[in-house]
Amino acid sequence: MKGGKSKADSRNPDSKLSVKKRKQKREKKAKDPNKPKRPPSAFFVFMEEFRKQFKEENPNNKLVAVVGKAAGDKWKSFTDEEKAPYVAKAEKRKQDYERQMQAYNRRLEGGHGEEGSDKSKSEVNDDDEEGSGEEEEDDE
């Protein structure tokens, strides 16, 4: 070829666009804001403490990558005994998460029970008070 478009490119100019259209049609599921967040791994538990320490030692550093790189190097140099407290904390958070997920799933299965309601108690009381006032006059 002499630097021009290939025949395949000139035949279907929209072929690349059609692929993009297919990807755009696919919608993400809406995330439930009440769903508990997944627990951090042992490394991320370590990172929470390391970030504070690193920030005190290097107050002028603004780069997240530098902190992550330093933390990763330190984590790799740890022995299993040095990682143990972080692993224990991560395990405890995982157990808490599993309990929260069980409660969350029970609320989803149970429907709108008192525990599963998205409304706070004050909002529930507000709804009850509204029913006894002006709204009844409108219904008549």
From TrEMBL:
Keyword tags: DNA-binding, Nucleus
Region described as Disordered: 1-43, 88-140
Biased composition (Acidic residues): 125-140
Domain called HMG box: residue spans: 36-105
Compartments where found: Nucleus
InterPro entries: HMG_box_dom, HMG_box_dom_sf, HMGB_plant
UniProt feature, compositional bias: Basic residues: 18-28
Biased composition (Basic and acidic residues): 1-14, 88-99, 106-124
Domain of life the protein comes from: Eukaryota
Signal peptide, first to last residue: none
Gene3D superfamilies linked: High mobility group box domain (1.10.30.10)
DNA-binding span(s): 36-105
Family (UniProt): Belongs to the HMGB family.
Protein name per the record: High mobility group B protein 2-like isoform X1
Species, as recorded: Coffea arabica (Arabian coffee)
